UniProtKB/TrEMBL annotation:
Residues 11-114 form the Regulator of ribonuclease activity B domain. Pfam families: RraB (PF06877). This is Protein of uncharacterized function (DUF1260). It comes from Moraxella equi. It comes from the Bacteria. InterPro entries: RraB-like_sf, RraB_dom. Transmembrane segments: none annotated.
Length: 118
């Protein structure tokens, strides 16, 4: 299969989607995507989780102290937010940018995304 650079541009998300297409064959048009955002404190993660709940998203907040095997790099809180969306590069990038912008005041940092089956 030859890569379609319109659909899978040379960006971080475009490259990941291309690799997933190679692995899985065909990607669904829409799917629940889980985005991870990490915070320096668990309290900041809780605040951001509450903010996301107001939008009706599925939210999980983790205290990274509860995961001794995880390399925390100074981050103690994590939010996993599930967003049902189109699975394409522009939509993923837009969601990441929105999460980054809205978590900035709490020192949040995007830490990747995934979906069931990837």
């Amino acid at each position: 299969m030859e890569r379609n650079y319109q659909k899978f541009p040379e960006t971080e998300n475009g490259n990941v989607l291309w690799q997933l297409t190679q692995k899985l064959g065909v990607l669904p048009d829409e799917i629940l995507v889980d985005f991870a955002i990490i915070f320096p404190t668990y309290e900041n993660a809780l605040k951001f989780g509450m903010f996301l709940l107001k939008f009706g998203y599925r939210v999980q907040v983790n205290n990274l102290e509860d995961f001794p095997d995880v390399d925390k790099n100074g981050y103690m809180g994590e939010v996993i937010v599930g967003i049902f969306m189109e699975i394409n590069e522009p939509s993923l990038t837009q969601a990441e940018n929105w999460l980054a912008e809205n978590s900035k005041s709490l020192n949040g940092k995007n830490d990747g995304w995934g979906f069931l089956g990837d």
